[in-house]
Design a protein that fits this description.
- With 559 residues, the chain is of the alpha+beta class.
- It is 33% helix and 21% strand.
- Strand 6 and strand 7 form a beta hairpin.
- The protein starts with a helix and ends in a 16-residue tail after the last helix.
- The N terminus is likely disordered.
Length: 559
């Protein structure tokens, strides 16, 4: 059914593009805009379309795309990450498709009567080969076009879209190849998998299960393993056991700014390989595929505790207890996700803990001190436990992604020392955040263990990951009816009032996971990249001297 709803011919889509480009609204940018003398002509676009085998497509906001479908997009589709993955101009969160700053604002929502193009590319290459991407990069360079690189739009900072740009869409790169002994420079790197940059996590977990393997991946259906996830470092439920995704990368095939297809590993282009592992999403080129280590699969315990509280004071109390007991589980190397959601008039807490190669008795024993302390204060909770193969657990957790909403994030990495020395400050901070309008707080125990032990790996991952205990991110939402002025107030509040509460916890020079963060970070150079930023800037100048690949809060965007 889904395939039928997307069955537009490439030729028809290209004709729609030729019509729409005339109506595109110009904006003052350094790159060529529709209406500029340097913008490609219809004849040039037609020739380019032929050079990419007719894969040039029109790109419109997701709401406008849905308006053209029979019956539109019902909620089940609009809110499905998998469905939106098939829409060229769609982002997981709709706010990144909007241009709230234009005069007048250029917006397109489901109930819009007059859709603007917003911050959505105006045309794109629906690539099926690396040659298509190479042609797109060369065309963009020749005509001074801005580019946007996207697989699925699962980008919580809006870096996969750009106003009046050429989209390079990699979702068709679905190859998956497992290797028993992957070679780099004649050295056997062990078991590995090579993955196209369109492969989502759910698909890859399914494939890995058939091989008896597991890889360091995210809990998200449409996030791709060989894309922004790994470039940002990539945390996982198995990171305490195997490290970050970037720690396990062995090689990349990537189209760089001069249009060539480069191999990046420890032998070929090692500086680029260094940058691609933690140096930020979208800044280095278009990844065609990535190869990373895989490990023998194993059984795990998925332990879930649900607690409903009546006040932010209660949230503070339970969060303080949790911080005091967070080290109780260390010998078992679990990951854990504690989330608080404002569900007026209550607050819902969900604590999901993943124990590798552990018995139910051992898992329960490690959580008992915390849960007993919670119970002694009179708070009740519910527990569910699932023991299964880790692939099956992650397959069930990545069936789809909640999508189609509007909101932004902010985050900080919190060190061991914060928990050991000032647990009460964590509870107080969570109370202040919820009192200040934050709708959810998620504390991810995905560091420590092998993440810390991998400090000797030479990569662009910020050193703050190596001393972190948790990654904590906060979220705020808004709606189609929220005015652009109100959106700006919300964004400013996140950057200058809410994130600083986490910043005070982390301490001076605190770090952040750049894939789940505030794109408006005032000093993103330090917060996202730390002491690595200088070297990253030099590598950027070498491989992308004209800044073709520029994204929000990415290397080069500070200029």
């Amino acid at each position: 059914m889904m395939m039928l709803r997307f069955a537009l011919s490439q030729g028809l889509v290209f004709q729609l593009f030729l019509t729409s480009v005339v109506a595109a609204v110009s904006s003052p940018k350094c790159r060529s805009q529709p209406g500029d003398a340097s913008f490609p002509t219809s004849d040039q676009l037609a020739a380019f379309n032929s050079s990419v085998d007719g894969r040039l497509i029109n790109v419109v906001p997701s709401a406008k795309f849905c308006m053209a479908l029979p019956g539109g997009c019902p909620d089940a589709e609009w809110q499905s990450g998998i469905f939106r993955d098939n829409i060229p101009g769609s982002m997981l969160q709709v706010n990144w498709e909007q241009d709230y700053d234009a005069n007048p604002p250029s917006l397109c929502f489901r109930n819009s009567t007059n859709c603007g193009q917003g911050d959505v590319p105006i045309f794109g290459v629906n690539a099926t080969t690396a040659a298509h991407i190479q042609a797109g990069v060369r065309f963009a360079q020749a005509h001074n076009l801005r580019v946007a690189v996207k697989a699925s739009g699962h980008d919580l900072l809006g870096r996969s879209t750009a106003k009046n740009s050429l989209l390079l869409w990699t979702r068709n790169f679905q190859n998956i190849t497992f290797h028993e002994s992957f070679q780099v420079g004649g050295i056997n790197m062990g078991s590995a998998v090579t993955v196209g940059s369109g492969v989502g996590m759910h698909t890859l977990y399914l494939a890995a299960k058939t091989q008896g393997k597991i890889f360091v991946g995210a809990i998200a259906s449409t996030a791709v393993a060989a894309g922004g996830y790994i470039q940002g470092a990539g945390h996982s439920v198995i990171s305490p056991t195997f490290g970050l995704a970037a720690d396990n990368a062995l090689e990349f095939q990537i189209v760089i700014a001069n249009g060539s297809l480069a191999t990046a590993n420890e032998v070929s282009n090692p500086d680029l390989f260094w940058a691609l592992r933690g140096g930020g999403a979208g800044s280095w080129g278009v990844i065609i595929s990535a190869t990373f280590r895989v490990f023998p699969t194993f059984d795990a315990i998925h332990h879930i505790t649900t607690i409903i509280l009546n006040s932010t004071e209660d949230v503070s109390t339970v969060s303080t207890l949790h911080a005091q007991h967070i080290f109780d589980m260390d010998l078992l190397h679990p990951s854990q996700f504690l989330s608080w959601a404002a569900t007026p008039p209550t607050f819902t807490g969900l604590i999901e803990t993943y124990f590798p190669n552990t018995s139910i008795a051992a898992a329960n024993a490690s959580l008992a001190p915390f849960l007993n302390a919670v119970s002694e204060l009179g708070f009740s909770f519910e527990i569910s436990i699932n023991q299964s193969n880790i692939n099956d657990i992650l397959i069930s957790k990545t069936l789809d992604d909640q999508a189609g909403g509007e909101g932004v994030l902010g985050s900080r990495l919190l060190s061991d020392g914060v928990y050991r020395q000032n647990a009460t400050a964590i509870g107080a901070a969570y109370k202040a955040l919820l009192d200040g309008g934050i709708i959810s707080i998620t504390e991810c125990l995905v560091a420590g263990g092998q993440v810390s032990r991998n400090a000797n790996i030479s990569s662009a991952v910020t050193p703050k990951w190596r001393t972190a205990k948790t990654h904590v991110f906060i979220a705020v939402q808004f709606f189609d009816s929220t005015t652009p002025d109100e959106v700006e107030t919300i964004l400013e509040d996140m950057t200058h009032s809410q994130v600083p509460i986490l910043g005070a916890l982390a301490g001076p020079g605190g770090g952040s996971y750049s894939n789940e963060a505030d794109v408006r970070e005032p000093d993103f150079q330090t917060t996202f990249f730390g002491p690595n930023f200088g070297r990253l800037s030099e590598i950027k100048k070498k491989y992308d001297p004209e800044d073709l690949f520029i994204v929000g809060a990415g290397v080069g965007s500070e200029c």
